[in-house]
User: Which sequence fits this backbone?
């Protein structure tokens, strides 16, 4: 998988600005038509374990 940049330090797949998940899933973040990246959400997010 290519390097995917991620700035979500709270995700268990985050490793120094790189997503280490085997795969990712991105969906629209609401009922509206997606027009910008702000209208999307990463559904692969998993909280980092303490």
Assistant:
């Amino acid at each position: 998988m290519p390097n995917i940049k991620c700035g979500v330090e709270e995700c268990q797949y985050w490793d120094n600005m790189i997503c280490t998940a085997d795969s990712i899933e991105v969906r629209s973040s609401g009922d509206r038509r997606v027009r910008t990246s702000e209208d999307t959400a990463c559904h692969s997010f998993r909280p980092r374990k303490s």
